[in-house]
UniProtKB/TrEMBL annotation:
This is Uncharacterized protein.
Length: 165
């Protein structure tokens, strides 16, 4: 006797010529329409508004850490242009180095000491990163002096002066 094919086996296991209720092993539950006395719009309450006043400190530090990483990545583009960097004034190079050192210090200390930083210190880091993000790095080769000048001015605002390296 020849072996049945796959299609024959499937058809034998689940013949589709019977109605769905006859093919189910357990009958479906009986549908009972509910008649509500109160309209749906009065039964559903609005969700509570989220409170943005207090966030988890660990989440805040993770956000700050990612912002600082992005700033360091952009700052590295300045340091990678050594030939143009050597043509900038010495005090500008020192200001850029201070920015880099302070950002590295933040990354090194954020996991251990980040929760002990005050809210204003965290805001200063955040503001620095936002202001740094406003500096346009497009066409860095042609606009190198303008970008360096903007970063030096940003360093003079003193957002990160509370960090002593």
């Amino acid at each position: 006797m020849p072996l049945p094919t796959i299609h024959q086996i499937v058809f034998v296991i689940a013949p589709l010529d019977r109605p769905l209720a006859a093919r189910l092993t357990t009958p479906p539950p009986v549908f009972v329409p509910s008649i509500s006395t109160v309209p749906l719009q009065y039964r559903i309450t609005a969700p509570s508004l989220p409170s943005f006043a207090r966030r988890d400190p660990v989440d805040l530090l993770a956000i700050i850490s990612s912002k600082v990483n992005a700033v360091i990545k952009r700052l590295q583009a300045i340091f990678d242009r050594k030939d143009q960097l050597l043509d900038t004034p010495h005090d500008h190079r020192l200001a850029l180095q201070r920015i880099g050192d302070r950002l590295e210090w933040i990354l090194d200390n954020i996991t251990e000491n980040g929760t002990s930083w005050t809210r204003s210190q965290q805001q200063n880091i955040d503001w620095f990163c936002k202001e740094f993000g406003k500096v346009r790095f497009s066409g860095l080769g042609q606009n190198f002096e303008r970008v360096v000048k903007a970063l030096v001015e940003l360093e003079h605002f003193g957002y990160l002066d509370w960090i002593v390296v």
